[in-house]
Design a protein that fits this description.
Layout: H1 2-9, H2 14-39, H3 43-47, H4 51-61, H5 63-71, E1 76-77, E2 86-89, E3 97-104, E4 109-116, E5 121-126, H6 130-135, E6 151-155, E7 161-164, E8 167-172, E9 178-187, E10 192-193, E11 199-204, E12 228-233, E13 239-244, H7 245-251, H8 256-259, E14 272-277, E15 290-294, E16 299-304, E17 309-315, E18 322-326, E19 331-336, E20 339-342, E21 345-348, E22 353-358, E23 363-367, H9 369-374, E24 384-387, E25 393-397, E26 402-406, E27 412-417, E28 425-426, E29 432-434, H10 437-449
Antiparallel strand pairs: 1-28, 2-27, 3-4, 3-29, 4-5, 6-7, 7-8, 8-9, 10-11, 11-12, 12-13, 14-15, 15-16, 16-17, 18-19, 19-22, 20-21, 22-23, 24-25, 25-26, 26-27
Helix pairs in contact: 2-4
Length: 455
Amino acid sequence: SKLIQYKMFKKIEIWILYLTLLFSILFTIGFGALVRHEMSGGQGLKNIGLGWVSETALFFAEIPTNLKRILISDLILEDRFSSIDGFDGSPNSKESYLLLSRYDHDLKEEVVELVDLRSFEILHTWNPDVKTINNLVEQTDEFKHLGTGIIHPKLLQDGGLLFKDDTPLRKIDYCSNLVFQNTKDRFHHSIETDIDSNVWIPSRIYPQSLPIKKVGRNIKEEDGYVDDSIVKLSADGEILFEKSVSQIFIDNGLEYLLFGHGATYEKDPIHLNDIQPVDFDGDYWKKGDVFLSPRAQSMVLLYRPSTNKIIWKGVGSFFRQHDVNILDNTRISIFNNNFKSFASGHQVDGNNEVIIYDFATDEYSSYLKDSLVKNDVRTITQGRGHILLNGDLYIEETDYGRTLYFNSDGSLRWTHVNRGSDGNIYRVGWSRILYSPGDIKIVENFLRKRGVCNE
């Protein structure tokens, strides 16, 4: 043992220590240069047959990021509601349903549950094998990284369920079997249908339609400019219309908003998170128009695809907003995240709000503001806010896995927290409340016609 201790603590010559430090510094610089070279395209080494060198360096450099992605795949959210597990409160008195999209900790998968809000009873559950569906897609180019969630599911008149998560658009039947998926685009954020059963979803044009590259760097296509687009699809998933939102800005004299701000290149100046189709003519819009929510601009637009014209834009009363809804002939609602960037970082400045804009009076107002403050609603990103026909208010506080329902007088009727059996809070995926006569008809038709699924 003394011999071992001697060898372990034997003095090292100072020149060996210095030489080791020198080689370590040179290795670090060289390794960083190889990683940078590969992230810039790696063309130099590839031209002489040594592309594998920089590729290997990038592989090792990305190990911590990839390991982190694996370890947090079961996204656990901050627990602000330790006393709530599932539904808590009084069920609704009128017929209404919740299409609850959530991560199930026990299944280790995403599920969608059709919940009767008069009893909180789960009437049906969809549990598609998203990973298997992803494996049907060639995961290259824009499909290199596919999500595994079920975001903003939409129940259709024929009983099918639409969903996506930075993936192709998928439709499944009542037994969660795949009906189709559109692999021409990678879709994200909201799913809405118009009166003609067409589907409107944000996507990204790939390759990008605008010739924009960061100066001095050969950016990989998937890391380049985020060319958000609005897409209209038929009921069977065929693309009928697609338009770059950046090009819409340029065509309507708003190019300065894309490339005229800040000292650095902005790759995602739009971040489209909602498309709300207009189904009727009015004094301020026409059937076929769409409301757009470009989050990065803290702006809501009324756009007319038939003429490629922006009819109206709203700014100033909301920040990093989501979820635009048409309330009546003159009013829309907007979920105001109130998300701002300060020196201390990104945060909600106070609480979320549901903002109403009235075109007839050109005025903004905050709906049931005191109730959202009292219940400390403050999702930083994402979020849903829907004012029902009777004045009740539905909220999804996405970042915290919480859903809330307020009576029209502002009192909290019920809340739901997606707590797993391990006690942790898990993500929800833009759940949808079903309450209108059209929604009720679709649900009742689905419940009447659904079959029996094999386990």
